[in-house]
Structure formats: structure tokens, C-alpha cells
């Protein structure tokens, strides 16, 4: 970083120790960022923002005692120059839309890789929108008829594609290369898929996929 450049001051609001310490370490090593503070409560958040020297707030609102997304919107409105990046373990379609309507347009999952993290930070600082790939799928996903077999929790387009690749026999590494995503992102997708569908093995997943019409029955023999 050029000596004349000023570090970007960042405030992290999250109560997960491993996440906050990892973020602090990663940002510090980048050189152009300075983590001013890590907080876990709303009262601490307002106090930390009051000096007006924070450029970016990285927050998991679900793990800080913020009553509603509207409260987060009010905090953002109270500090006009503040950019907000939401980083979360999981978010529903309804909550994602609510964040979007509240003007919170930079949202990523905690499973993103290093490049996605810094792409999201740079976009937030520039006032541009950024969503993790799977979250973008949710936003763009058209409403579909509910599966008559079982409520699947509405798999995203990316998740259904990964189901098909798993059914083709691809390994986690091969799926990551095919989808241009990280190995850990594929693992996270797999866990979410198994949880949503209530299956515990690849055989169960393929059987479910055949019944749901996601894969061709001619190609698979269970």
C-alpha cells in the first residue's frame, strides 16, 4: 500500500469468535484495511459508529441483538457515509428481499472464498451491489410450483445443478472446477442440499432427484 493512501476503517459486528478473528486476520494481511473494533451487541455498535470514522460495517445482524432489518436500515440512515456488508450463515428468500428493499445490497455467505470476500468488500465500498452466487440465484429465482413429494425448502438453481453433477458421479473437487467455485463452497452446498431434502446418502439423493424430475431415469439405475 502506498504510504500516501489511507487505510479503510472497518467495524465487524458478529458474535462468532472464529469468524471475527479470521476476518480480522485476513483483512489485516491485505494491508489496506484496518479493523477498528469487533463488537457483539447493538449498544456497542452505535457507540463504535458514533465517531464517524468507520467506512465499512461488516455485520451478521442475526448474531447481534438487532430487533429487525428495519433497525439495520435506521442505523445505515443515521450514518450516511457508512457502507454495509452483511455476512451470514444462512438467509431466507423473504429476508433477502427485505434486506434488498431496505437498501442493504451487499450480502454474502460465510462460506465464500477469499476472492469473493474481497470482491464483496470492494463493491460495497464503491457503492455497488454484491451477492454470493447462491444468494443471487434466490433473488432471480422465479416462483415454482411446490414439489408434490415433499417441501424441499426450495433448492436454488445452483443447488439443483450441483445435485445433477453429484448424480453424474463428479467429486467435490471436480464440481468446484466445473462451477468455478471453491472446494469449501461445494461442501457447504452439499450440506445444505442434504439438510433441505432430508437425505443422508448419495443413493437417497439420486432417488429423490429422479422422483423430483431433476435427472433422467434412463441414465441412472438405483
Structure, described:
With 222 residues, the chain is an alpha/beta fold. It folds into two domains: 8-138, Response regulator (Rossmann fold), CATH 3.40.50; 157-212, Winged helix-like DNA-binding domain superfamily/Winged helix DNA-binding domain (Arc Repressor Mutant, subunit A, Orthogonal Bundle). It is 48% helix and 13% strand. It contains ten helices and six strands, in the order βαβαβαβαβαβααααα. The protein has a six-stranded parallel beta sheet, sandwiched between helices. β4 (83-88), α4 and β5 (106-109) form a beta-alpha-beta unit. α7 crosses α10 (202-212) and α8 (172-179) packs across α9.
Q: Examine the coordinates and then state which fold CATH places here, giving the name of the CATH topology of the largest domain.
A: Rossmann fold
Strand order, sheet with most strands? 2-1-3-4-5-6
How many structural domains? 2
**Oligomeric category:** single chain
Query: Helix/strand-derived class?
Result: alpha/beta
Instruction: Report strand %.
Output: 5-15%
Low-confidence stretches: 142-152, 218-222
Report helical residue fraction.
40-55%
Name the shape in a single word. elongated
Radius of gyration, CA atoms, in whole angstroms: 20 Å
SSE arrangement:
Layout: E1 8-13, H1 17-30, E2 33-39, H2 42-49, E3 56-59, H3 69-78, E4 83-88, H4 93-101, E5 106-109, H5 114-125, E6 130-131, H6 133-140, H7 157-167, H8 172-179, H9 183-197, H10 202-212
Parallel strand pairs: 1-2, 1-3, 3-4, 4-5, 5-6
Helix pairs in contact: 7-9, 7-10, 8-9
Pick out its properties.
Arc Repressor Mutant, subunit A, 2 domains, Rossmann fold, elongated, 10 helices, 222 residues, alpha/beta
